[in-house]
Amino acid sequence: MLFSGYPLSFYIYLIPAILISITFHELSHGFVSYKLGDPTAKNLGRLTLNPLKHLDILGTLMMLLSGFGWAKPVPINTTYYKDKRKGTILVSLAGPLSNILLALIFAFPMIYLENTFGLQHGSLYKGVDIRVIIYNFCFIAYFINIRLAVFNIIPIPPLDGSRLLTVLLPQRQYFKMQQYENYIGLGFLVLIFMLPGVLNTIMSPFLWVVETGIGFIVNPILKLFS
User: Fold this and answer.
1) pLDDT digits (tens, 9 = 90+) for 16-34
2) Is 26 known to be catalytic?
3) Which stretches of the chain are DSSP H helices?
4) Distance CA 68, CA 42 (A)
5) Rounded to whole angstroms, what are the CA distances from 105 to 86, 129, 194, 209, 225?
6) Going by C-beta distance under 8 Å and a sequence separation of 6 or more, which residues neighbour residue 191?
């Protein structure tokens, strides 16, 4: 289980971090699609910061248990796009990119506290000191957003990467894959539960690239103000 060994009180940090992450993820999909001329998400009330509109029960449970998960996909209608291929790519990438942006934002106070007070990266601290509270929340939000971004790029339903296949695969192959979409998604869930280490191994290089990139941005900026 995610953060195993820590008291249940840490879910006070984890749950709001997840709600913030998935809300901005799905809102970004809908907002970009809306800007490209598609009113579907707006008409369905999905252009909102209300997390209840975006929650997928299974996807949220997966995030609580494994650190990987998803929200309820925002419906889009690509027929509204002037350039269907470009629009689909932009909308698909909007969610993961929004999570990388959130991770970048949370990285500033997280890294500042690590550098200033000698907090160890990746550790969660007990206590009610304001620095501890801020650090724990920022680290968990940073952690969740990076994993959510990388995980959702995997080209397997119901993840965002599967939408990219609509423009990357020949139409015949894509429609053939769609016939087995439910079976592929179910098999993927079984893989996560039974062999979580495999997914971690696959994602680790990409997680490292994102974390390293964020560090290259945040550290020099913090040094300017130190």
Assistant:
1) 999 999 999 999 999 999 9
2) yes
3) 11-35, 40-43, 57-66, 84-117, 130-152, 160-168, 171-178, 181-194, 196-224
4) 27
5) 27, 22, 34, 17, 16
6) 198, 199
Residue 1 belongs to some domain of the structure: no
For residue 214 the two structure tokens come to 């964020």
Residues with Cβ within 8 Å of residue 99, at least 6 apart in sequence: 21, 24, 25, 145, 146, 148, 149, 152
Could you list the residue range(s) of the whole structural domain that residue 196 is in? 8-224
The answer to whether residue 3 sits within a structural domain is: no
Catalytic residue, candidates 26, 114, 181, 211 = 26
Do the domain assignments include residue 29?
A: yes
Domain contains 48:
yes
Give residues with Cβ within 8 angstroms of 132, minimum separation 6: 125, 126
Structure tokens at 112: 């500042």
> 43-68 pLDDT, tens per residue?
999 999 999 999 888 888 877 776 67
The full DSSP string for 21-34 is HHHHHHHHHHHHHH
The count of domains in the chain is 1
Tokens of 148: 């959510």
